[in-house]
Specification:
381 residues; TIM Barrel; binds S-adenosylmethionine; binds iron/sulfur cluster
């Protein structure tokens, strides 16, 4: 048995208007002019304590993937992140080819910090690039200048990362198809092995969500989103990347094994404020605010806020929703009779690949990928 580990670092310099992740700026934390690194010292101590709690509960299991996400993990010096990595290694042990990723904002790293991250053990890095067009970055409220992106990706390559990924967002109001095409061309001109591209989601309660509700910005229609997705798939395929999940493409051997573990419902422990965990069908999630999370751990309590155990039926629905998004697809014999009738209809409409279907698996065709949400909705209804 092996375990995947997520480590949440809930700090950002500034909140992007569209983002509702569990993250806090120094101002929100009311720590005056303290740097994020000093605010985070106590947080790292709490993470180390949670590692002790996890080790007691899981028993012996080597860790096969580790993912530091946020927030902005790279706001903290590599030395601080290394305290967590070292403790995980001491208490659990890492598999020989353990994938160790950190997310990074392009303006939160430079050549020397990237070298340090590599030296303390990170072997994969995922840059939040989103777009290279300044007017699109402005709508998204991003802090980075797109000129930095090429530099830091090349610096990461020089530092010796095994896999480098770039995240793009498409469908931002004001982004034309040509704008997106230019962002893609730029990303594909960099020495990367992996690309994630997500359609912008309008999240309730964000600054951006409020602007959409007030009609100040207008989201693109489905046809425009589909046009961008088709352009995306065509360009990345031509550049030698293969899709392995609806929003993820990689060169051979560079799939993100950590995300695959989520999608295949493997066991993972999420450390830190608001992080979610899943062990053998039981899930729980931690106290959301970093201050309360730290206090609870310091007082010898559990960091968990609540838990649930999925029924077999709910687990099957969730597996279906995740696996159908993957290139490996899902075995037809997992579906109930009425679900198969619905799928058969989609198959007749060309939404699944015939070769896979004939060998007993439902794998979405390109057209099917555009309608994945509808397929899932109708199959589980
Ligand atoms: C939460 S961020 C954390 C990493 C880093 N702070 C960054 O912004 O790149 C991870 C990814 O989620 C994306 N994301 C956050 N909110 C989103 C939304 N509403 N729609 C689509 N992608 C979103 C980000 O743009 C980013 O690429
Ligand atoms: S930098 Fe990343 S985590 Fe922070 S607010 Fe922006 S998208 Fe969210």
């Amino acid at each position: 048995m092996s375990l995947s580990v997520y480590v949440h670092i809930p700090y950002c310099v500034k909140r992007c208007g569209y983002c509702d992740f569990n993250t806090y700026t120094p101002g929100e934390l009311r720590q005056g002019s303290d740097s994020v690194a000093s605010v985070a010292e106590g947080y790292i101590d709490a993470l180390l304590d949670e590692i002790e709690i996890a080790r007691e509960q899981t028993g012996e299991q080597a860790i096969s993937t580790i993912f530091f996400g946020g927030g902005t993990p790279t706001l903290l010096p590599a030395k601080q992140l290394a305290r967590v990595l070292n403790r995980l290694n001491e208490r659990f042990g890492l598999t020989e080819n353990c994938e160790i990723t950190t997310e990074a904002n392009p303006d939160s790293v430079d050549a020397s910090s990237l070298k340090e991250l590599r030296e303390v053990g990170f072997n994969r890095i995922s840059f939040g690039v989103q777009s290279v067009k300044p007017h699109v970055l402005a709508v998204l409220d991003r802090t980075h200048n797109s000129n930095r992106v090429g530099e830091v990706v090349n610096d990461a390559r020089s530092a010796g990362f095994d896999s480098i990924s770039v995240d793009l967002i498409y469908g931002t109001p004001s982004e034309s198809v040509t704008d997106f095409s230019e962002s893609l061309d730029f990303a594909l001109s960099l020495p990367i092995d992996h690309l994630s591209a997500y359609a912008l989601i309008v999240e309730e309660g964000t600054k951006f969500g409020a602007a959409v509700r007030r009609g100040e910005v207008v989201m693109p229609d489905d046809d425009e989103s589909a046009e961008k997705y088709l352009l995306l798939d065509r360009k990345v395929s031509t550049a030698g990347f293969e899709w392995y999940e609806l929003s993820n493409w990689s060169k051979a051997g560079h799939q993100c094994r950590h995300n695959e573990a989520y999608w295949l419902s493997a066991d993972w422990w999420g450390f830190g404020a608001g992080a979610h965990s899943h062990l053998s069908g039981k899930r729980w999630w931690n106290i959301k605010h970093p201050k309360s999370y730290i206090e609870s751990i310091k007082a010898g309590g559990s960091p968990a806020a609540a838990s649930e155990t999925l029924s077999q039926k709910d687990q099957a629905i969730e597996d279906l929703m995740l696996r159908i998004r993957m290139r490996s697809g899902i075995e037809l014999n997992r579906f109930e009779k009425n679900q198969l009738t619905v799928l058969e209809d989609f198959y007749q409409r060309g939404l699944f690949l015939p070769d896979s279907w004939k060998s007993g698996r439902a794998v979405l065709s390109l057209e099917g990928r555009l309608l994945a949400d509808q397929v899932v909705r109708e199959v589980i209804s």
